[in-house]
Amino acid sequence: MKIDVRELSQIEQDALAEIANMGVSRAATSLRQMVGEQVLLSVPAVNIVTRQAASRLVEKGNTTKLVAVQQSFEGPFSGRALLIFPEAQSLELVRSIVGDEHSLEDVIDLEHEALAETGNVILNSCLATIANVLRRTMRMSLPSVVRGDGEMLFDVRGGPADGNLVLFLYIDFTIKNRDIHGFISLLMDLPSITALKKIVREFIDGIERQSPGNVD
Amino acid sequence: MYKVLVVDDSKLARMVMASAFRRIRPEWELVEATSADDALAAISAVDIALVDFNMPGTDGLELVARIRKSHPKMPLAVVSANLQDEIIARARELNAAFVAKPLTDEALGAFLSGAALRLRKTAP
User: Fold this and answer.
1) Per-residue exposure over A142-178, b if at least 16 CB sit within 10 Å of its own CB, e if not
2) What is the Cβ-side half-sphere exposure of residue B117, based on CA atoms within 13 angstroms?
3) CB proximity B25 to A under 8 Å
4) Phi-psi region for residue A36, left (φ > 0), alpha (ψ -120 to 50) or beta?
5) Which tens digit of pLDDT belongs to each residue from A2-14?
6) Chain B 54-113, CB below 8 Å of chain A: which residues?
7) How far apart are CA A86 and CA B87, in angstroms?
8) Which ipTM did the prediction report?
């Protein structure tokens, strides 16, 4: 299924960005609670791109050795949510969550497990927020930890040749006072343009119903 | 003083829970289970249970439904970052509380205070 971003009106594109923003903002709040430091966020970007272009976006300015916690989801959209950061910062992230009182050995022992649970909390809060906003239900998988470059994370090599375009939402974050930055990203297989427009339209109608003057 | 079962497949999540209990209810006893089967084997020996939603095999809501059949009055909570309206509604239908992850002392404390109150009321 091919989709052209030009088939979405400006208001529909804005609505998609806003829905994504609510999800990742909630995710950032969860991350902040877990690390106990302020989490600085960029403005979310929403693009319809190839998987290859998406992989280049997360490698930009980064080492290509990345680690990600990913969770797939099915619902009005299906796709994957990923928490991505440079592999070299993985232990620092785990340490910031389990606390500085743990020894390096403990942190190494816990690394995989802590990454999976951190991803689980952050990605679930993002996806659940989006599901609530859209008034739909999403089923989410258990988290898994993957390591590799952007192409590996986004399944560029093994992905379908057809329908290679994905709806790609990402936001980058930096944890204040810690040398940690990364991305929260959503990679969605595109439903038909009709389905996408319907979901977005319902969201926009919901906002219009809530606007002042329309209060029951 | 009550005995509390914590069911979560994640070690980190169980550590977070244990650390919160040390601050809020240091005198209460914690029992940990990592799966639904472990939880069902331990359930009759505890007063309260906190169950993670997203676990391999039986998920937290299915587990709570099974516990509910044999323990209709036990204070139960589903713990999850999956705060979808539908999940919270299903927890309520099972007469279980919903406690959001990341876990905060306030949210856990509120559930435990309510649970202690219910247990005192139903005590023989």
Assistant:
1) ebebeeebbbbbbbbeebeeeeebbbbbbbbbebeeb
2) 6
3) no
4) left
5) 455 557 787 887 7
6) 54-56, 80-87, 101-102, 104
7) 33
8) 0.76
